[in-house]
Design a protein that fits this description.
The chain is mostly helical. The protein has a single domain, classed as Orthogonal Bundle (ABC transporter involved in vitamin B12 uptake, BtuC). Helix content is 72%, strand content 0%. The protein contains 14 helices and no strands. Helix 2 runs parallel beside helix 4. The termini are far apart.
Length: 304
């Protein structure tokens, strides 16, 4: 039973981790994209539809990544080229994604999906307790861990990562040094969109291989909160994603055990935990400001 709980926690945490790591890169470049939820749901419906049509979950994953990146490109054009308000544009992107996904997925409701197979390594996957947890997960679980490590290495060990962080900290100075601020932000925004699309595909191809309207259920907003919770550090995002995954799974097990608490209250626990964490973080201004990109959410218009 304990092994099963750990497996379900990992499954619940993986889409949060993928989406949050992508958004972390976006925010490190100084851009605030609140459209994660919309990009995730678009990735979910696209991945499900393509996998259903082709019979290949991998083609579904690829399509979801592409749709997420394209959707984020719309956000980038509006906020980076036309210099619209990032908060309002992100919210509009979420509403657009939810509405468009609902329309696209109307014919998919009730259809059985194409589930991605789990990894099986003879000998290792059969080990007691740790076998399935470390050597028998779905492929995207391993992608999420590698992605986190790759982003951490890129941001803090490479020249390109230093350049991206410098843009997020002071885009005016970066521009004065000849750094192409807008071009780099476009790439960061598209990377974040691709990750959000991948996270959405995970929901419809691994977590629950089916399509339901609004199946992201606020996970995009939790991913945004995770970035702040982790103070813009990739490995802290990993820890936070698994913490929120444990809360999500914990409320399901509590309902199964028949604990005398209304099921609606138990279902709201992940979101209540998000609010509580953000309130606690906001009380410590020093912790909030220490890693916050100074140019986050601020528009940039290069000199002409």
């Amino acid at each position: 039973m304990f092994e099963g709980i750990l497996l379900t926690i990992a499954t619940a945490a993986t889409p949060l981790l993928i989406a949050a790591v992508g958004e972390l890169v976006v925010e490190r470049s100084g851009v605030l994209n609140l459209g994660v939820e919309g990009m995730m749901v678009m990735g979910a419906v696209t991945g499900f539809g393509v996998a259903l049509a082709t019979g290949s979950p991998w083609l579904g994953v690829l399509a979801a990544i592409m749709v997420g990146a394209l959707f984020s490109l719309l956000f980038g054009f509006l906020t980076l080229t036309l210099v619209t308000n990032q908060v309002a544009t992100g919210l509009a992107l979420t509403l657009l994604g939810l509405g468009l996904a609902g329309m696209m997925g109307e014919s998919f409701v009730g259809l059985p999906g194409v589930k991605m197979d789990y990894v099986y390594i003879p000998g290792l996957s059969d080990l007691p307790m740790v076998g399935r947890l470390f050597f028998g997960q779905d492929p995207l679980f391993y992608v999420s861990i590698v992605l986190t490590g790759g982003v951490a290495y890129f941001l803090f060990k490479t020249r390109a990562g230093l350049t991206l962080r410098s843009i997020g900290d002071n885009h005016t100075s970066a521009h004065a040094l000849g750094i192409k601020v807008i071009a780099i932000r476009y790439m960061a925004v598209m990377f974040g969109g691709a990750c959000a699309g991948l996270a959405g595909a995970y929901l419809s191809l691994v977590y629950t291989p089916q399509w339901n309207e609004n199946m992201t259920a606020g996970r995009g907003w939790i991913a945004l909160a995770l970035v702040v919770f982790a103070s813009w550090r990739p490995w802290r995002v990993l820890a936070g994603a698994y913490l929120f995954g444990a809360v999500s799974i914990g409320q399901l097990h509590a309902q199964a055990l028949g604990i005398g608490v209304p099921s609606q209250l138990l279902s709201s626990l992940p979101y209540l935990a998000t609010v509580v964490v953000l309130v606690l973080i906001s009380r410590n201004r020093r912790l909030t400001m220490v890693n916050t990109p100074a140019s986050l959410g601020r528009p940039f218009v290069p000199d002409r």
